[in-house]
Amino acid sequence: MAHYLHWILFLPLFAAAFSALFLRRQGAIAAWFSTATAFTIAGLALKVLLIGGDVTWHIELAKFGDISLGFGYLLDANARLMLFVVSFVAAWIHLFSVGYMQEDEARGRFFAGLSIFMFSILGIVVADNLLMTFIFWELVGFSSYMLIAHYFDKDYAAAASRKAFITNRVGDLGFILGIAMCLSLYGTLNFSELAQLKPVGGFPVILGALLMCGFLGKSAQFPLHVWLTDAMAGPTPVSALIHAATMVAAGVYFMARVHFMLATDVLNLMAISGAGMAALAGLCALAQTDIKKSLAYSTLAHLGIMGCALGLGRPDLAVLHMAMHAFFKATLFLGAGSVIHGCHHEQDMLKMGGLLKKMPLTAATFIAATLSNCAVPFFAGWYSKDAIIEAAHEHNFAIFAFLSIAALATCLYSGRMIRLVFLGEANSEAAEHAHESPWTMTLPIVVLGLVYSIAGGFLAHSLIPASALGVVAKPLEEMAFHLTAPATIVGLLALLLGFGGALKFYGITRGKDALQLVSPRTYHLLEHRWMDGLYRWYIDSIQRRVAEFIAFLDLLLINGVAVRWIAGGVPAVLGYFTGRSFHRGQTRGYALWIVLGTLFLAWFLIAR
Amino acid sequence: MENTSLAHHLILAGLLFVLGLTGVLVRRNLLVVYMCLELMLAAATLALVAFSRFNRTMDGAVLVFFVITVAAAEVAVGLALIVALFRRRGTVQSDALNTLRD
To answer: Shortest CB distance from B94 goes to which of A583, A586, A592?
Structure first.
């Protein structure tokens, strides 16, 4: 089994290296090469999923005393599911990109970037220790940076990529401190060894909190969520692959993997902040006119729900929701990409409209994925989201309330999106002349959308084979379709009120946002980026001052006293006694002083 | 070889080193200075080989191979610098190259 994992992991690395070295100028070849690799990986991942069985494989790379650092695989049910979801979604997104990036000059770089991203994310999935996870974690950060900055000559894309990178580093600082703490406390970083430890009194709260920092950054959890909406500056397939389906989910996956190390306090914090963010982000999505930004807020909301599930002590549900979300959100983003492509790179939803007739395939899949997003019964999202709301209900009323708001908000913004983009009349020249996208773009959305978004959970028993059922089956059986459960009632109410309401509400105006007309203040409240303002204030008023103070100390003590004073003072004193300047520009003179200095140092060290 | 001891080798290496050092300090032609520098390096490697032999391990000898390889590369760079210097300034006498003073 391990050899399958070697192939899965290193094939994309090879593809990336090959494209980067030889195919920079042959964009078309690079595109198909990278896509073929992605499909091969997806096939292998499916095979691994079908065979089933856990894999542990490890080689030691370095040993320092008792501490062993190595490279290895730990494949359990979660990992198999994640492996399949990532590679399957990624393969179709590769195919989509072939069409979407058709006219891009830098296709070679783009596809090399996708491949290196595949390598990084698959590394996180199979990693068997914290250090390896961290290394691939950083590689994911790098590839995300590279792909967001694909249009690097545009200022906003360059700024967005920096923002994503730096925000992630903030979280990763905590992560690496957590790794160091784990190493110093337990002397091992291996997941299976850590799982066997049963420290008295449990794992320390600080360790859990530090490890959670990495998750906060990568999965865009509050308060480090600010980068995700800006990351939409990258090409749409990148948004679909990285910032909706896989990378942001990696944080959730990682938290599920180290769930046993998280103390109760950490979990409670995660649950409440996740639920809060889910509700807030869902509402913020209402105040975005850019279709991708609106979807980004939707992703934030779902990540909040996953974080909440982790916090509720249900990593299985979090992973399940992550898998379902990956399918339907990838479909939504690819659908959005197809719409943007069809409307000649128009991203403003207010300028779209009436696309149902012009882009029927895209519209059908987009709507199907939206229904899944809204957790309409028997659609994929319903299985996981309802189960999480159910779990919240059993746990804590506040969290349940937040999640209910989130459910309502989801339906509201989904309804708005459908209403603005696909229904009504075309609101601009571009939407008037919209056309359906080529097959390389529609096929992926049809596959991802129709097969998985509609039927995902329902067909889970047949489509996701028995080996993954360790993850999937349990929540499915728990669901058992009890219609009187509070979660189901909330879900259905949210659907009726939110979806129906939004369809009606946003029909009252044309070319303008209805909420903005009715209540500009609410709209501004939701649209304004409060956290960005807070960070700006912090950096300008606090961090910069501290940095300037430290720079002053450096100038005074290191540069002034230690270097200038000694370097200037000693020759001045010696020069005073010898009556000659030392600084004569003669190489031989300097060489002599070097020799004398060395001799003095040797005497000083030996004679003492 | 039977009559030589480690001390002999080290004295030879030391002499070579001092010879090189003196050259670096007193000669003015940069090309000669550079050759003297290489002599110092050779002295150091000689000591290394001697230690290696009398300690009956190959470590030092292997290290010397790397040193020689790197030194060869470094000579190429150094000579190129001297050539470039000559082209630019018309001289490689170290006395004339004193703009660092200002």
So the answer is: A586
Q: Which residue has the tokens 């709209």?
A: A523
| Higher-confidence position of B52 and A516 | B52
- Give the pLDDT confidence of A486-499 residue by residue, as tens digits: 767 777 777 777 77
Domain limit, last residue, from A528, A548, A580: A528
Set of chain A residues whose Cβ sits within 8 Å of the Cβ of B33: 587
Say if residue A323's pLDDT is above 70: yes
Mean pLDDT of A124-140: 89
CB–CB of A595 and B25 under 8 A?
A: yes
For residue A592, the enclosing domain spans 533-607
Same domain flag for A415 and A524: yes
Q: Do B98 and A584 count as a contact with CB atoms less than 8 A apart?
A: yes
- The count of CB pairs under 8 A between chains A and B is 25
- Write the single-letter amino acid at A117: F
Q: Which residues on B lie below 8 Å from A575 (Cβ)?
A: none
Indicate if A598 and A469 belong to the same structural domain: no
B63 CA: distance to closest CA in chain A (Å): 23
Query: What is the pTM (predicted TM-score) of this model?
Result: 0.76
In chain B, what are the domain boundaries? 6-91
Output the pLDDT for position A467. Answer: 36
From the CA of B100, how many Å to the nearest CA of chain A? 5
Q: Can you tell me the ipTM of this complex? A: 0.81
The 10s digit of each residue's pLDDT in A375-431 is 777 677 777 777 777 777 777 788 888 888 888 888 888 888 887 777 777 777 766
- Choose the weakest-confidence range: A271-285, A458-472, B8-22: A458-472
Closest by CA to A224, choosing from A213, A240, A208, is A213
Vertex A516: Cα angle to A510 and A521 (nearest 5): 170
Picking from A528, A554, A581, the residue at the C-terminal end of a domain is A528
Q: Is A587 near chain B, with CB under 8 Å?
A: yes
Is residue A359 domain-shared with residue A472, that is, in the same domain? yes
Q: How far is B70 from chain A (nearest CA, A)?
A: 23
Which of A240, A395, A241, A422 lies closest to A317 in space, CA to CA? A395
Q: Do A583 and B26 touch (CB under 8 A)?
A: no
Q: How far, in Å, CA of A46 to CA of A465, rounded? A: 9
CATH 1.10.287.3510 assigned to domain B6-91? The reply is yes
Q: Least CA distance to A586: which residue of chain B?
A: B98
User: Residue A163 and residue A230: Cα distance in Å, rounded?
Assistant: 8
Helical packing angle, A130-148 and A247-257, nearest 10°: 170
Shortest distance, CA A573 to any CA of chain B (angstroms): 19
pLDDT computed for residue A478 by the predictor: 52
**Is a pLDDT exceeding 80 seen at residue A128?**
yes
Does A410 share its domain with A497? yes
A586–B28 CB contact, under 8 Å: no
Mutation target for A interface from B82, B91, B93, B98: give the one with most A CBs within 10 A.
B98
Element (H, E) at A520: helix A520-527
Place of tokens 């002999």: B8
